[in-house]
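Every protein is a chain of amino acids, and every chain bends into a shape of its own. The protein below has been through that process, and both of its lines are reproduced in full.
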Amino acid sequence: MNNETQTLLSHIVENTYTVGDIHRRLGTLRQTVEHVLFTQSNIPFMEACAEFLSRTDEVDTQDVRALEQWGEPVFKAFTQQNVAARISSLQTEIDMLPVLTLYIPVEFPAEEITFLGQWARTHCHESVMMDVHIDPAVVGGCAFVWNDAYHEFSFRTRIKEHVGIITTTLSDYAK
């Protein structure tokens, strides 16, 4: 990976924690820079990018905020000549990032996903991306796959591990 792609990727990964978010945001970045680069505009480049993002209804507000945080270092890295190659290079590098597959019982708010993403980057890998799946079977906990190993910490699994203790405790309580 060249230094320019590495620098761009580090800006992008800084505030993006899930596989879905990074792919969606990369697509939005591409739409934005292509629109600004290939349309005539009398306003400065960054202002034109901000204007495009503000009037694009289908873009999530969290994605817009994330792209705005990337700022000039990311947006100004693109020219008419390099936009396709640079996006392709970023996509290739994104596909090679380590992935922590996470199974949670319900959808978490964005703030919780950010918290989990920061935790994963501290404890697993500095640029890990989470692939989040909703699985009601892991109620009372979660499950995850890291380094090809599946780990489950659900209530159901804990009950199965301690069946004798739970039965004995319930029997003692009934007496």
